[in-house]
Amino acid sequence: MNHDPLMPPQVERALREYRALLSAHGMTWGEPPLGYVRMMPFLRFPEEADRMSIRPDLDAEFRDALDGEVPRGLVALRLTTDGHSMEHRLEHGPARPLLSPGPVPVALLVDSALPHPVEVTADGVPYGIAAGGARLLDVTTATVLTVDGAPVDLSGLVRPAPAARLRLRAGFPCRWSVTSPGGHGWYPEGVPERRDNDDVPFFHGDDVVLAVPAEPVTIRVTRGMEYGVAETTVVPRTGEETLVGLAPQRLYDAAALGWYGADLHVHMNWAGDLVAAPAAAAAAQLGEDLHVLNLVAGNVAGERVYDREALQHWAGRDLPWSDAGHVARMGVEYRNDLFGHVHVFGVAVPPAVYHTGFGGDADWPPNAAICGDLREPRAVLGYAHPFHGPISSPGDVVGEGTRNCTGRALVVDAALGLVDGVEVLHFSDLSPEPGTAEVYRRLVGAGNRLAVLAGTDTMLSFTRQDTVSSPPGWERVYARVDGPLSAESFAEAVRRGRTFATTGPWLELTVNGLGPGERLDLDGGETVAVRARAVGAEVEHVEIRTAAGVLAEGPGPEITASLPVGDADYVVAVVRGGPHPRSPRGRAYAHTSPVYLDVRGRHVAREDDVRWCLRWLDLLDELVRARARLRTRAQLRDHLDLIEKARALYESRL
């Protein structure tokens, strides 16, 4: 779709530049080699990459993590010796059916058990392999491959197959998966060969035609978390077109109840193995029936801000494919790896600062100052992927000061009222009880009013890369909107805290009939009626929680409780469940924003939670002094002054 309005000239120029970077540098696009940049080639194999540590020789680390296994999508070239001469063999899965002659991309792991170095060449490009070393290469089945001059035959990786065609029709845009035995995926011509975190091939559209082998193929279709999955298997005839009419069944209709689901953290381009255009974002949003999409401009590890040109062109305006039920905007991810990342939805003006602390830059201005500059009357700010595992103490939050994107400054920005919410659901913490949820409840219990948010950090420029290549919206924040859906009405609902975040289950919470984000003004001594209801086959456990902990729990789908109210409090609902197609990495989870119970005008301020946040501030103060890259005493003072302002606010709540 290289035409207006999806491709304005400045965006097309930027995409051409990205393609040149990809061609010159591969999937890192020449970014500075920080840990997560160096890991990009290996994250195509998520389970194996999870077992890796980041050491200087990542290729050997990857080989060792495989422990002799060869996952789907990888070919291993084993180099051994019988004591006299070198031998090589290829290990791989079933040969890929090939419908017409042509090269097929291959991820090739060269694994040497030789006691001496060896040279592998791929189309004339030499790669030195150390004794006992390894190297991950991207080649094709047509690559001329040699080991110390001896040819390696790659022809066994593919097999000829008779061709047929499928026409897939649901009646509305969907996500399709077409596979043949061996797990090989099939795609319409020109469509990227994407795979999700569960290694399932997928593409989006409706009434699409694609070439497939004339052998059994399985077709699955779904449409985001509000739909089930429909599946069938067909054997198309050679040279003929087979029509497959298949549509997923709707499980629930959030919009009919005034609730709209968003993914507030999606990148169009962020390095990767392809360059994504706006048309890819449009296809994904409509195919997932994602009501609200926030495409964020941001850097990776250096100065370059990807999709800045798209933000400059569309800031404050809906993207061209938006309609009455779908809104897409360009937004921002401000990034500092020591203090945390913040995403912005609904921004009307591109920011002056997109990142701090990268390369030789100072960790300045503080996150609070940046958040103040990013705040606009119609924009909403949320901390992105703030915590990456279980959290039991403020020490777990602050840690040793590793630059790992942890939201260490959140305790300050929440107290100062500079952010609207927190990604309680995100790609970086998929444990049964996310650490971010624990911290979120501590912050709310300490008197901060924050909305539960969700953002997947999906990157459309990756076709296979851990969770970030899964479709947008596999985690969503739903917000209850007054009137028609728009960027402004959705942002207003988030600001008011009328939200819940979910991997799929529908979750309702009422306290005396009021829902998340609402406030009951009480005198103290009353008893309120609490109800939580969940919808979803994966729901196994429902909880009602207050600042003091679990008030009521059960298997669901609905639980109720009576809560005597003495001091100010809050109520949230939480859902947990097991594996389900809508819940990547083997768990289901949902969490509401609070219903607030104010007593005689006072907000909740549980002493234990306030002191928890004060200890966090103490540790943050120490971290700033010891680890922040600051050039002047004035820069240090700016950080410490904000910490002291937050400290005064928390102490006033005791």
UniProtKB/TrEMBL annotation:
This is CehA/McbA family metallohydrolase. It comes from Microbispora maris. The lineage of its organism: Bacteria, Bacillati, Actinomycetota, Actinomycetes, Streptosporangiales.
